[in-house]
Amino acid sequence: MHPIATGAPGDRLLLLGNEAIARGAIEAGVEVVAAYPGTPSSEIVEALLQVSTELGFYAEWSVNEKVSFELAVGAALTGVRSLATMKGAGLNVVMDMFLTLPYGGTRGGLVVVVADDPGAHYSSNEQDSRFAAQWAMIPCLEPESHQEAKDMTKFAFALSERLELPVVVRTATRLSHSSGVVKLGEVEASSLGPGFNKHWKLAYRWNVYGPPGPPAKHEWQLARLPMMDQESESLAFNELRRGSEPVAVVTCGTGAAYVREALRDLGLEDRLWLFKTGMVYPIPAEMSLEVLDQCDQILVVEEGDPLVESQLRVLAQGRGIDVEIRGQQIEAFLPRYGELNTQLVCDALVRLMGLSPGVDEARKEIKREVASLVIPRSSALCAGCSHLGTYWALRQAMGEQADAVHIANGDIGCYEQAGYGVKGEMPEPSDAPMAHHDSTILYDFLDTLYVMGSGVSMAQGQVRAGYTAGEVVAVAGDSTFFHACMPGLLNAVWNGTKLTFVVMDNFWTSMTGHQACPATGMTAVGQPAKTILIEDVARSLGVEFVEVVDPYDLRGTAGAIQRALAFEGVAVVVTRGECMLQILRRERRYREPYTVTDDCVVCGECVKLGCPAITFSEEEGAGIDQILCVGCDICAQLCPCGAIVPGEEAE
Ligand SMILES: Cc1ncc(C[n+]2csc(CCOP(=O)(O)OP(=O)(O)O)c2C)c(N)n1
Questions:
Q1: pLDDT tens digits, residue range 463-512?
Q2: How confident is the prediction for the chain on average, in pLDDT?
Q3: Would you list the DSSP string of 228-261?
Q4: Mutate to test the pocket of ligand 1, among 480, 481, 503, 579 (most ligand atoms within 8 A of CB)
């Protein structure tokens, strides 16, 4: 069993930030856990799923974040401690309930862990989800270390019950995905018993429309703000260290870790004040006011946008305190995009203190040297990935007429890599309203790429705009289809839109680590489950053209897509081939690797496939990496001179 379940109080474990959060939930006696995978948050529930059966709590992967959050809400209303976790983008999917639930709050502790991704290592954006807590007017805690990740999560459940409001714990990639030592604590349980009372402390408590109605319930929530302020003030995670000079650094979360390092590197530890707030909304007003009163200059260091900074400015303005606040707003000392690091904090402190620059030239020099050594590498699909076949067939079916400008709308999953471009080849932007671009390689194929479920709906907008200069298609994966594409597809059917939608069913939510989804045939804890077939869903949504094809059969797949493109209505082509990584894990090998014979005429056609097992140079022609190749046969089917054959045939 995972050590987060077997470890005893007092044990010290080396845990991922996300595992520390999972342990915090266990120590709080969590009873219901639901999430949809999303990097960098997934390991929290991955870890909890490994121990849920033995520890006797319920955990699942839901079809999307909205469902998982609302499920957790439903459980919490019955007095049970519940957890929903998600990546930053996932929070956007739950916003309807997120902004409405606080009007009546919760009974059982309800904790929402949001893992943000500054630097967008794995995300479409760098959003700072802490602002959502401010918007919803519910507390947001932000851990600095692995220990705090565990302790704050545990604390958040009790806080939620005291305030009768959901509580957000915000983490960031660096904490979620790094490891640190965590001292375990006791496993506790909620003092509340399970139960349901429709009018608990407030008439129609769990029905926002029930009398006295939403404004009165809003007022109920606003009356809790002073309680939130008190909790923030007395929080054990706050830290205020006074310095010898009237200059302070105010910080929180991972920013605090960089600040400690920067102060030490610059020898400023004793000179400057350090104020770390554990709650980033609302910040502790009294502690903040002491800093604002006693210091002339303040540098605010926080991972994301200026949330703490803007609250400090409001406090200073409200009390008429004349203090220079430096951060990201007004004469920025820190950048508003990308991830924080110690160097950036050092640079800001150097500027603030008027120190001589270049204190850390050595570090910068090493970074420059390393950057010059690293060869730019493009992202690529795996050798033998079923998406390679789908994309090849799709491109064949759409054709590359010089006067056509097709629009291929992408979506989120492994297949989004078909929109990542080729590293080191930056296209020349142009002002032309219409321009044909040859997508010579798969990785240049997708034209639009934003967020889960957006492709199929955007395609409808293009059709409705009267776009006829080329084909309009949309693609999505199986998990994405169930997460966010069904309403879009239904919309197309209902409104009678001509549309081709290719759904790549590889059975798993592969990109985030092969979590089960409705296409897998099992639940998150490995129990057999009904396999939901995308073609059945499409037909039940009213789609009249539905074909299911094997993406390893290029001709068959291209033919189905051609028929779909010619169809006057909504057409869905499901390309079904299990994720090759899963096949290899289960069966160790797929087939013998292929090889290239002397018949190769060095035309380069095989390279356009985008399979990482294919090597190519003008001098040596095509080759196949014998370690990477899984013998899927796709490249053999597309080679115009039949020069790619199974290894044993060449011998
Ligand atoms: C709102 C939101 N939630 C979660 C994610 C994380 N995420 C990225 S791709 C993906 C799904 C991938 O599964 P699938 O569509 O089946 O494609 P595959 O990777 O298997 O090809 C998820 C959950 C996200 N980007 N946005």
A1: 999 999 999 999 999 999 999 999 999 999 999 999 999 999 999 999 99
A2: 96
A3: HHHHHHT-TT-EEE--SSSEEEEE-HHHHHHHHH
A4: 480
Kindly give the distance from the C-alpha atom of residue 480 to the centroid of ligand 1, in angstroms, as a whole number. Answer: 6
514 alpha carbon to ligand 1 midpoint, in Å? 10
- Count of residues making up the chain: 651
Tell how far the Cα of 479 is from the centroid of ligand 1, in angstroms: 7
Q: What structural domains and CATH numbers belong to the chain?
A: 3-223 (3.40.50.970), 235-353 (3.40.50.920), 386-423+439-585 (3.40.50.970), 591-646 (3.30.70.20)
Q: What is the pLDDT of residues 164-194, one digit of tens each?
A: 999 999 999 999 999 999 999 999 988 888 8
Residue nearest to atom 22 of ligand 1 (CA): 38
Ligand 1, atom 24: nearest CA belongs to which residue? 38
Task: Give the span between the Cα atoms of 491 and 485, in whole angstroms.
Answer: 10
Residue-wise pLDDT for 43-98, tens only, equals 999 999 999 999 999 999 999 999 999 999 999 999 999 999 999 999 999 999 99
Q: In whole angstroms, what is the distance from residue 99 CA to residue 103 CA?
A: 8
| Residue bearing the CA closest to ligand 1, atom 3 | 90
Q: How far is the CA of 541 from the centre of ligand 1 (A)?
A: 22
What pTM, to 2 d.p., does this model score?
Answer: 0.96
Amino acid present at 225? L
What is residue 270's three-state secondary structure? coil
Pocket of ligand 1, beta carbon within 6 A: 36-38, 87, 89-90, 93, 412-415, 452, 477-480, 506, 508-512
